[in-house]
């Protein structure tokens, strides 16, 4: 977990606390508990690092404490975010990560001080600066850019436009293109941050360029990598595209290694580019993310039930744990295979495997590393040298390794395809509204404000921060809740809940059909749930009228045509209302089930009301002058069979939903569902 991974996992934990539904209000204790816990962490890591340095094998124990300490620090970060509410202090990821970043720098400083007697010539601060420049700074730049884009998207007016049709399309395009642009554009920035500079013209430099041409690898430059006070024997390749692909070679390696060993190291880095290893690393990360989502979704109900923890917390913890396992084990297998393939390429480019083996041994000696030291991303130096010795005896092992790596790549592609199918094509499993409110305190508070205080802005902000699948889960749960017997029996109750639906006119769920059913429920609530319409409600009905009419045409839905007719009635467009009600009647003509018969009675009454100038829309709850269940007229023979209007008939909105299903519980929506 060394290097960049702790920061990535810390970001995932903060993201889970922000949008995973278990974020608590910021605890005032955080302002003194958090700095005190940082002080305690500094004392712990400094003390244990010193203890490890006093053992017979200091470096071995320091590495073990490094791994354990990073896990402890991430656990502390999760406690800050979930228990103290630190993730709520700001939507800015850089600020949320500030405590864990300070803890990480303290940990690295303690390790550098503990290792100081072994490397007395290396300044502790120079070593810490090297880590910060090579590991932390690039990650902070990427996170800062994401924060900037997020803040721009929250500008009043722009946030709503981004959820419109064009804005949503641009967001989807940006979501695909921006990561690619970052990966392509980062190498030129990194080489400047790291102080890399072009090599001076020389025979050695000309020979390196010839090697790159022979390898059929186009690079933007072969650069000198300054050490800045820390002995540094390394090389690297950066960049996915030829124009911005760079080979970096450290000054110490170029100065202290013979030319044939430098060529072997250069060949190793060219091998990474020639075989497209960076692209395969990205595919593996994408595959791991998909499978972490799939497995956490599958395991969350079981663990949440067993431990009684909030579902969102369990899901976040499982996601991070699965990613840790996949990266530590799966990525380690892939990385070791790619490193070995790069060694083979370097051996071939240098002309003899012994040059590659000598380069590895020399780098281990110069950097003071133990050749037998294991590494999760590489085989140990000793293992790599032994493999190259076997290569000198039999070239067949090279083809065997290439075949092994081809099988690994095929496995990644298969797992990627399965992960895509399971993630995007499996039917969603929607929780009911009570479960969602229990899991997410922020959502619960937003729903309370919308229902009790007619303030739907917090709910709109919550929706803007969620991914489409979570918006769809809430939308389906709301439709299911609004379809229960209590609310269906009285259109005024549906109108009272309109502020749960209003934010969805600004924020799309990402599912066009679900958006249509939300618009239909809202439009019917406003049209039939009250007799007193203000200008904003009339304007909203005009806004929703065209898409609902198009949806009714497309789905041939009698319920939506009934809503369209009711909207025309409220807007005093009588002929259009009659036409819409008649379309609904035509769609119900062949149906003789009880809900269809009840809706046909209501449609007939509404058509008669529409024929009388000034007559309001007939509804089923009993206010003065309104049509009650008992007062529903018998449908004439030409409109359909007679229906008994005795008690026990269902009210209008109940019939319009159908007996068995609601949009949240049944993928194939019934024609009569509101």
Written description of the protein model:
There is one protein chain. This protein is 68% helix and 2% strand. The chain contains 28 helices and four strands. The protein has a four-stranded mixed beta sheet with strand order 1-2-4-3, with helices on both faces. Strand 3 (235-238) and strand 4 form a beta hairpin.
Notable characteristics:
single chain; 674 residues; mainly alpha; four-stranded mixed sheet; 68% helix; elongated; disordered C terminus
How would you concisely characterize the structure shown here?
This protein has 674 residues and is mainly α.
Strand arrangement within the widest β-sheet reads 1-2-4-3
* Radius of gyration over all CA atoms, rounded: 33 Å
Strand segment tally? 4
Level of helix content? 55-70%
Shape: elongated
Alpha-beta classification = mainly alpha
Distance between the termini: 52 Å
Mean pLDDT: 79
List the uncertain runs: 621-674
Strand content: under 5%
State the major sheet. 4 strands, mixed
User: Helix segment count?
Assistant: 28
Q: Helix and strand layout, with pairings?
A:
Elements (H helix, E strand, L loop, with lengths): L4 H15 L10 H24 L4 H25 L10 H22 L9 H30 L4 H4 L3 H29 L3 E2 L4 H12 L6 E5 L9 E4 L7 E5 H6 L2 H16 L2 H31 L3 H40 L2 H15 L13 H13 L2 H29 L8 H7 L1 H13 L3 H8 L3 H15 L2 H4 L2 H6 L1 H4 L10 H17 L6 H21 L2 H13 L3 H15 L5 H17 L41 H6 L17
Parallel strand pairs: 2-4
Antiparallel strand pairs: 1-2, 3-4
Helix pairs in contact: 1-3, 1-4, 1-12, 2-3, 2-4, 3-4, 4-5, 5-7, 8-10, 10-12, 10-13, 11-12, 11-15, 12-13, 12-15, 13-14, 16-17, 17-18, 19-23, 23-24, 23-25, 24-25, 25-26, 26-27
């Amino acid at each position: 977990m060394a290097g960049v991974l702790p920061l990535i996992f810390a970001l995932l934990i903060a993201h889970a606390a922000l949008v995973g539904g278990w974020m608590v209000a910021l605890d005032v204790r955080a302002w003194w508990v958090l700095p005190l816990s940082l002080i305690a962490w500094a004392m712990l890591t400094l003390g244990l690092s010193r203890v490890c340095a006093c053992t017979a094998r200091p470096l071995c124990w320091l590495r073990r404490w490094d791994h354990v300490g990073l896990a402890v620090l991430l656990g502390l970060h999760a406690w800050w975010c979930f228990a103290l509410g630190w993730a709520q202090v700001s939507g800015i990821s850089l600020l949320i990560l500030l405590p864990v970043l300070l803890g990480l720098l303290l940990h690295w400083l303690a390790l550098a001080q503990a290792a100081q007697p072994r490397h007395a010539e290396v300044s502790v601060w120079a070593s810490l600066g090297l880590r910060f420049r090579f590991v932390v700074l690039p990650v902070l730049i990427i996170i800062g850019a994401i924060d900037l884009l997020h803040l721009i998207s929250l500008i009043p007016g722009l946030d709503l436009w981004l959820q419109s049709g064009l804005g949503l399309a641009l967001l989807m395009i940006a979501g695909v293109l921006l990561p690619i642009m970052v990966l392509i554009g980062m190498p030129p920035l990194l080489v400047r941050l790291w102080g890399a500079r072009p090599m001076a013209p020389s025979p050695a430099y000309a020979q390196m360029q010839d090697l790159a041409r022979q390898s059929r690898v186009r690079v933007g430059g072969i650069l000198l990598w300054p050490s800045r006070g820390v002995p540094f024997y390394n090389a690297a390749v950066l960049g996915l595209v030829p124009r911005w692909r760079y080979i970096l070679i450290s000054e110490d390696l170029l100065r202290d290694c013979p030319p044939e060993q430098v060529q072997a190291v250069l060949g190793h880095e060219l091998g990474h580019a020639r075989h497209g290893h960076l692209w395969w690393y990205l595919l593996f990360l994408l595959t791991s993310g998909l499978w972490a989502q799939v497995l956490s979704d599958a395991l969350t109900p079981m663990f949440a039930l067993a431990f009684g923890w909030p579902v969102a917390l369990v899901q976040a913890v499982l996601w991070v744990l699965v990613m840790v396992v996949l990266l530590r084990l799966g990525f380690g297998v892939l990385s070791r295979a790619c490193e070995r393939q790069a060694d083979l390429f370097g051996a071939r480019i240098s002309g003899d495997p012994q040059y590659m083996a000598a380069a590895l041994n020399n780098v281990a000696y110069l950097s003071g590393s133990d050749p037998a030291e294991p590494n999760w991303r590489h085989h140990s130096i000793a293992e790599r040298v032994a493999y190259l010795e076997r290569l000198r005896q039999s070239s067949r092992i090279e083809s065997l390794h290439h075949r092994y790596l081809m099988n690994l790549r095929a496995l990644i592609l298969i797992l990627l395809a399965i992960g895509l199918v399971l993630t995007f094509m499996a039917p969603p499993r929607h929780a009911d509204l009570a479960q969602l409110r229990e899991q997410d305190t922020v959502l619960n508070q937003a729903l309370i404000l919308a229902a009790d205080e007619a303030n739907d802005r917090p709910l709109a902000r919550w929706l803007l921060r969620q991914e489409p699948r979570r918006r769809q889960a809430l939308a389906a749960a709301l439709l299911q809740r609004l379809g229960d017997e209590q609310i269906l029996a009285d259109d005024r109750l549906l109108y009272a809940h309109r502020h749960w639906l209003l934010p969805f006119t600004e924020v799309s769920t990402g599912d066009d059909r679900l958006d249509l059913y939300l618009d239909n429920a809202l439009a019917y609530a406003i049209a039939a749930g009250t007799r007193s319409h203000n200008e904003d409600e009339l304007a909203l009905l005009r806004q929703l009228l065209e898409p609902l009419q198009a949806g009714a045409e497309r789905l041939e839905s009698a319920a939506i045509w009934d809503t369209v007719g009711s909207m025309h009635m409220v807007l005093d467009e009588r002929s259009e209302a009659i036409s819409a009600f008649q379309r609904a009647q035509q769609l119900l003509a062949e149906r003789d089930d009880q809900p269809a018969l009840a809706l046909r009675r209501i449609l007939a009454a509404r058509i008669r009301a529409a024929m009388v100038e000034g007559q309001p829309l007939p509804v089923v709850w009993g206010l003065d002058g309104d049509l009650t269940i008992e007062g529903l007229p018998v449908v004439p023979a030409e409109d359909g069979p007679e229906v008994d209007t005795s008690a026990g008939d269902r009210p209008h909105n109940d019939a319009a939903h159908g007996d068995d299903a609601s949009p949240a519980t049944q993928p194939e929506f019934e024609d009569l569902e509101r």
